[in-house]
Amino acid sequence: MRLLERLLASLASALKVPEGTAAPAAVLWTDADGQWLPLIPQLRAVLPTFFTLGTYDSPARTGPAIWLKCIVDRELPEAPPAGETPVLYLPHVGRQELRAAGDCPSRTQPLIELQYRGRVWHQSNGHDWTVQAFLVSDEGLGLDVARDRRTEEAFLRVLPILADTDASMLRGRRLDADDFDKLSVSDPVRDLLRWLNGPELFEAGAQGGRWNSFRNLCKSEFKIDPDALGASGVAAGILRGDSALEPIWRRFCEAPQLYPGIAKLLSEPSSGAQGLLSLDPARNPRVNEDDEADLRKQLEAAGNLPQASACSRVLELEQKHGPRREWVWARMGSSPWAYALVPLARLAKLSQSAVGGATVASVAAAYAVDGWRCDWAAMEALAHFRNTADAAVIARLVRALYEPWLDASSRHFQDVLRKEPAEARKAVGSVKGEKDTCILFVDGLRFDLCGRLAEVLESHSLSAKLSHRLAPLPTVTATAKPAATTVASEIKASNGEDFTPLLQTATGLKPATAPLLRERMASQGVETLDFGETRIPAGGEAGGWAECGLIDSIGHSLQAELVHQLKSEIEKVADRVVTLLDSGWRRVRVVTDHGWLLLPDGLPKVELPAYLTETKWARCAVVKGSAEVAVPTYPWYWNESVRIVSPPGIACFRAGERYTHGGVSPQECVVPDLIVERGVELSFASIQSVQWRGMRCKVRVETNDPGLQIDLRTNWKQAATSIVAAAKPVGSSGEVSLAVVDDKYEGAAASVVVLDAGGKVVVSQTTCVGEKA
Q: Quick one: which H or E segment has residue 195?
């Protein structure tokens, strides 16, 4: 990992917000001493949303505070598109200066309010990120850097070079000024890359003897003369695959984002690219550009084909263009259509067979095992582009691939459900409160989203067991949410006019609304948590209840644009699950009320005269009396004498619906039930004592895991700084004796560290080697 990559990752993490919190309007990067200024050109090249406080220079994305504020508010053409958060770098402005409000200098006063609408990128202790702090922090590079003035001056001198240096080369030892100065010693490959990336800038800084030295080095190392060939001539050699220039190509491929000028150079006709297309097309960005344009054209045409032909065409294109995702240009963001093929190819493969099964149970099981993957592929494909023209191409193709599968699956499910209404009713199941278990309700958590959620949680080393049940009919929140609570057995029937059942209260029957459901669960002893609330569980027998997620409300509000919010919503639910487990719940059970349908350009419409219904929503209606209707009917879950009508397949009673629910389909009716627990019990440890006898150290530890290892290091973060022969397990006694093998460490500062099975430090304590009691 390189410094620049870690910076980008850290800035991205600053954009994450807790459940129910609005995304930040901007990320403010305060830098009181201007230490990060040398990295501006590199950051500007790899981060399109990077803007700098300074003298107005629009092409350089630099301007005064009021200009930056206009950028954030999207009032200028150079502002980033909606959905992309600008990063505002403020050199020579400290966080405390912004917090001073009225005492803040006039040049930065327009930015004061942004610290409340946005996020300030800073250390966990609230201080600005200095270069030294980032180098040593685990959030940064985790290096062991000497804390003296000479070392600081050295790493600031070489900061642009350090940004492109593999940090693994610097680990395992304490770094001082000499280590950083060595980075500035001539690296022929790096110097040639820097010249190719910006010939004019490089040559301006290498006048006289330094240019002659560079030229002589190129002649001896790479058998080229920069004066004679020029940058274009060298680029032609790279395209040809000249053996002497192979190190240049390999180094470029390691971190192409750092050298955007080289990609531009290789794509210029003056680089000699003509006639070289047959050598190694993977090296030529122009080949990739032409292939991208052709792929877009082919996918646009495929959107007009029948489903079977469209599926075959997409799979053919994946076979042809998929390998380009391994090319260096894909890592530079120049192959969006090749990446779009990933979900499109999955959708083309999965959508060729509709969800089948002879019974309600078998259809639901088939959907819960693999069917949902087709839905997720469609959602991923639709979310790939935000650009209107490109998104329209994808939407048309997704519809061609997805709609026939979606409709056929729904019609088959409707057929078997009408034959087995009692089995469908049984499959709704029940949700009971359990000790040490918090039920987490997520409105509209469709099965494909929960399948993805389970994968995310498993990546956090959690155990995620996914099963399924059926939602009550109709699949709207008013009907389905009460069935997902612990008070379902207390629900009373109503006339079903608004699909809401009743609950008995001290003042009579009342609609089973969300507040009343929570109140009734609390009266049962269920520990109910407010939205986003976290607290240590009380340990009651009825367990807990919490809610999170805005999937359904976002879907009704944004319709097809919901696809762009799904991954962030899944991450928020995953964060909520982890938070609940961290707060002391032994188990989290994730439940929902219903799923939904989403189709770009709208679901088909069927007519249902209003005079035949008491209530009519997009995908369901209550039949008036004994009226005869031409569409399928089903009994209402809470009162079987009430007839519910739902359109066939994926049709709607209203035109223009892109996102909706309330009908009968696997997507709406087969809902997830996810049990999440820690995969293994967390190891904890406490160092009780450290005693020295000469060069031998006796450590006593209290822990729940006798397999933990104890080590002695000069730097607690660095395994390579161990000063004992080997780490030792705690064992059942909780005591370990460690011998320092080299007398030179006597009197040196060290750390006793306790490690888990993965080598992660659980706890550490400083000591002095040979310290007398």
A: helix 188-197
